[in-house]
Specification:
The complex is a heterodimer of chains A (about 450) and B (about 425). Chain A is an alpha+beta fold and about 450 residues long. Chain A has one domain (about 5-120, about 165-440): Peroxisomal Thiolase, Chain A, domain 1. Chain A is built from 12 helices and 14 strands. Chain A is globular, with a radius of gyration of 21 Å. Chain B has 2 domains: about 10-115 and about 155-425, Thiolase/Chalcone synthase (Peroxisomal Thiolase, Chain A, domain 1, 3-Layer(aba) Sandwich), CATH 3.40.47; about 120-155, no CATH class. Chain B is built from 13 helices and 16 strands. The longest helix of chain B has 16 residues, at about 75-90. In chain B, about 30% of the residues lie in helices and about 20% in strands. The chains are: A alpha+beta (about 450), B alpha/beta (about 425). Chains A and B meet through β5, α3, α4, α5 and β6 of A and α3, β6, α4, α5 and α6 of B.
Chain lengths: ~450, ~425
């Protein structure tokens, strides 16, 4: 018998706000945070709008003794650190970072793990180019001899460590003194879902009692922004009304919009959570009862889009539902990838049709990219937060920007409403074709 | 739980390394103590603090794949991955096993990002540099970069591209992951792939890693950290793990892939069983991003967990494939951690670092070293740590100095420790009869 695993803390970060309260408010109001880009002048790019986090400072989310380290954190890393801080506090977990010295901690360091999804992190252009500028020849072109001799000296010695994807997890483990199993998963939009799945397995098999998992990403810098636009999956034709630019699962969808952020969530073994609960009285949001991972193959699109029939996506979902030991008809809510690109969305709808059959026409399918943008490696973390909160609140979030839903779906644009929710499905399908599916079950805090 | 889980065996291996492009050539070179290090040729490093590296020589992935059109524009990391995986696939006789259920064929890689397109990227950056304000003019940058950067080359930098291309090449539709825990990545990938097979979530997993950081920004990054050897006058002796005068690691590049399979699946299709993966341990130092914990608490923990997972006593370990990078810090702390785990026995257990010969393949290093363990068990021979003329008195274990040796080998342990403090250890045992 493997152990039960509960989501007990949520740490979302996105353009709608930081922490679960503003995030959930935006989800039920259907409030999108997509607007003209402020952090750099995007006027020469094919897309000039995004879901940007304004005024974020990682320093706010670390204790004094770690403030200096925020200087070597790329924005992605800072967002993960903030997410972990928010999640730990939301869960009421006492760690090195959330307690004063000497106070008892909730878990021993060896029993705490961290599996965090991350994206490719680009060097800051100003910092890198200030060095390149010292290595120019007479014509102003890059001279590698001067770079080797002189130019590279202008980069801070720790330059590389700002941009390694595993630094998201490393800083989180240092802050919270999590010395247990630790991993960094880099599978674009599937990263956070796969990371949550890995933490689930680690706790189930008894290698840790508590894990930080999820992901964070920021593509709001010129290099990564352009790199994503080059994938052809983003809306580069409409920007006059940013609020309407992303229309997931709508037949008029014209591409996704880039967002930043993600979420770190706290998972705990039910047995250790219940012991802790006797003293601390925190609430569990949801139990994770099923997980499936699979690969979709689309050779014509070089795997930049999933198989047009959604093959692979259905496998991951079916495996997750099978592990939960339920029928597909018992799922009450689906949070799909729904990036708002017609080919990608259509593939996902095809997979949902195969798994759910006629029941799909009754099943709430609620994408959220219109609110948060596509947060890449962090996106699945936001999905997990919305699903967990929906189960805890017994409330369906709003569906926005979907006037013409793909045939077979229950509904397009719909306001939030109360509902009896027992099981929620999350599915993340990434650039490159990796897929993660998770089934969450309402957690009954009263009975235990 | 352990008793109920599946046993996991290795049924195929392949690699593309600085010492060659097939298993036997490279293994012979390792046993002969040959170095694959020379002056860097992929770019002009003649003024860099470090001017040498262990490069893969004259490699063309197209001889390894069925349809190279699928892979047009791939980076060298993906090319190495395809070459290594194709060898392992054939070695495991999966090319002649039509009954394979591709929905239960998974992939878990620990591969690194593709190289920056530095010529076009640097040119874009400089053309947009505002000398007065000392910052980038984003509008000029956007115009220049949109013209100069190519979509395929940019997308290929995503770290999941080797994985994505292996999936297309072999039709794998099962669980698919890429992890990137720096230098520990491919050891972790093998460990996690093992966990997936043990649970019964797949029948067969392709596991391993691919990486190249031999490019101007990669070398710059490690030079700024002063992590690389700067022994430019003697590249072949520059990588000297555990030596008193070691001055850093040497960058290598390449890929190594293993076919892992449940024992039942391998037995059913009568596949050759090369070795069994019996233990895996993962830990975090949770100390500093710049330094290892001085007593090696993370490595001690990953080794201890891997041995417990394997139900192997420390005294039963016959060989340790060291992380052994050749930095002052790693070799000293790894030695301390081995002593902490193995106690009195530590001096009796032969340890070596093949990074002395092929440099450090970063994300791909652990998978290469896992294959070394498989071959050590097969041939009852251990590769040496070369360039070890003057051992560091603080590194006082048996590092198999300079010359390979024969030994009775049943159980091997392989260590990988990542920058930032993520640590992974595997225990590999002779295959069941």
């Amino acid at each position: 018998m493997s152990r039960h695993v509960v989501i007990t803390g949520l740490g979302p970060t996105s353009a709608v706000g930081l922490g679960i309260e503003p995030t959930w408010q935006a989800a039920i109001e259907g409030r999108t945070a997509i607007s003209p880009i402020e952090s750099f002048d995007p006027s020469s790019f094919d897309c000039r709008i995004a879901a940007e986090i304004i005024g974020f400072r990682a320093q706010k989310y670390v204790p004094k003794w770690y403030r200096k380290a925020t200087k070597v954190m790329a924005r992605d890393i800072g967002l993960a650190v903030a997410g972990a801080d928010l999640a730990a506090r939301d869960a009421g977990i006492k760690t090195r970072a959330t307690t004063d010295n000497g106070e008892d901690r909730s878990y021993s360091s060896q029993r705490m793990g961290a599996h965090i999804g991350a994206g490719l992190i680009a060097a800051e252009l100003d910092e890198l180019t200030s060095g390149l500028a010292e290595a120019r020849d007479a014509n102003g072109a890059f001279d590698i001899h001067q770079w080797g001799q002189e130019g590279m000296q202008h980069l801070t010695p720790l330059w590389l460590l700002k941009y390694l994807p595993n630094m998201l997890a490393c800083h989180v483990t240092i802050l919270h003194d999590a010395q247990g199993p630790s991993n960094t998963i880099t599978c674009t939009e599937a990263s956070a879902g796969l990371s949550i799945g890995e933490s689930l397995r680690v706790i189930q098999r008894g290698d840790a009692d508590m894990c930080f998992c999820g992901g964070a990403d920021s593509k709001l810098n010129p290099t990564e922004f352009l790199r994503l636009l080059m994938t052809g999956r983003y809306n580069t034709t409409e920007e006059n009304d940013p609020q309407l630019a992303v229309r997931p699962f709508c037949q008029t969808a014209a591409g996704s919009i880039i967002g930043e952020g993600g979420a770190i969530v706290v998972l705990e073994a039910r047995d250790t959570f219940e012991q802790r609960r006797a003293q601390d009285k925190p609430m569990g949001y949801a139990e994770i009862v099923g997980f499936g991972a699979a690969q979709s193959i689309n050779r014509n699109a070089k795997n930049l889009l999933p198989d047009p029939n959604g093959s692979g996506i259905d496998n991951a979902i079916s495996i997750a539902i099978g592990e939960a030991g339920i029928d597909p008809q018992q799922i009450d809510l689906v949070i799909p990838t729904g990036i708002g690109h017609p080919d990608s969305d259509r593939a996902e709808v095809a997979a949902l049709k195969r798994v759910f059959g006629d029941y799909l026409s009754k099943l709430p399918v609620i994408p959220n990219k219109a609110l948060f943008g596509n947060c890449s490696a962090g996106a699945g973390g936001l999905d997990a937060c919305i699903a967990a909160k929906a189960l805890a609140e017994q409330t369906l979030p709003a569906i926005v920007n979907c006037k013409q839903p793909w045939p077979g779906l229950a509904s397009g644009t719909t306001a939030t409403r109360p509902a009896d929710l027992r099981y929620a499905l999350i599915c993340s399908c990434g650039l490159g074709g990796q897929i993660a599916a998770l089934v969450l079950k309402r957690y009954d805090n009263a009975s235990s | 739980m352990k008793q109920m889980s599946q046993r996991v065996v290795i049924t195929g291996i392949g690699w593309i390394t600085p010492l060659g492009h097939n298993i036997e050539t490279v293994w012979d070179a390792l046993l002969a103590g040959r170095s694959g290090v020379q002056m860097t040729r992929q770019f002009d490093a003649s003024t860099f603090p470090t001017q040498f590296s262990a490069e893969v020589k004259s490699f063309d992935y197209r001889q390894f794949v069925a349809n190279s059109d699928l892979h047009d524009g791939i980076g060298s990391n993906t090319a190495f991955a395809l070459g290594a995986a194709a060898q392992a696939w054939t070695h495991a006789a999966l090319n002649s096993y039509p009954d394979l259920d591709v929905q239960r064929l998974g992939i878990y890689l620990g591969s690194g990002e593709g190289a920056v397109d530095f010529k076009n990227y640097f040119a874009s950056n400089l053309s947009a540099w505002d000398d007065q304000r000392r910052q980038i003019d984003a509008v000029r940058w956007g115009t220049a970069a949109t013209q100069q950067l190519r979509a395929v080359r940019e997308i290929q930098q995503e770290p999941n591209m080797p994985l994505s291309h292996l999936a297309m090449e072999f039709g794998a539709q099962g669980p698919a992951y890429n992890c990137l825990t720096a230098c520990a990545a491919s050891t972790q990938a093998i460990g996690e792939a093992t966990s997936i097979l043990r649970r019964g979530d797949a029948d067969v997993m392709i596991a391993g890693g691919a990486h190249s950081m031999i490019h101007p920004l990669g070398v710059t990054g490690f030079n700024r950290l002063t992590a690389l050897s700067t022994r430019n006058n003697s590249p072949t002796t520059a990588s000297r793990p555990f030596s008193i005068d070691r001055d850093g690691f040497v960058l290598g590049e390449g890929a190594a892939m293993l076919i892992l399979e449940t024992l039942d699946h391998a037995a059913k299709r009568k596949a050759p069983m090369l070795a069994e993966i019996v233990g895996y341990g993962s830990s975090a130092d949770a100390f500093r991003i710049t330094d290892m914990h001085s007593e090696g608490r993370g490595p001690t923990s990953s080794m201890t967990k891997a041995l417990q997972d394997a139900e192997v006593a420390p005294s039963d370990v016959d060989y340790i494939s060291a992380h052994g990078t050749g930095t002052k810090e790693n070799d000293l702390i790894e030695t301390k951690a081995v002593k902490a785990v193995f106690g009195e026995n530590a001096r009796e257990i032969p340890i070596s670092s093949i990074k002395s010969m092929m440099g450090h393949l970063i994300a791909a290093a652990g998978a290469v070293e896992a294959i070394v363990c498989v071959l050590a068990i097969r041939d009852q021979k251990l590769p040496p740590t070369i360039n070890l003329a003057q051992p560091d008195p603080a590194c006082d274990l048996d590092y198999i100095p300079n010359i390979s040796r024969e030994a009775q080998i049943e159980v091997c342990l392989s260590n990988s420790f990542g920058f930032g403090g993520q640590n992974d250890t595997l225990v590999i045992r002779r295959a069941p009869n």
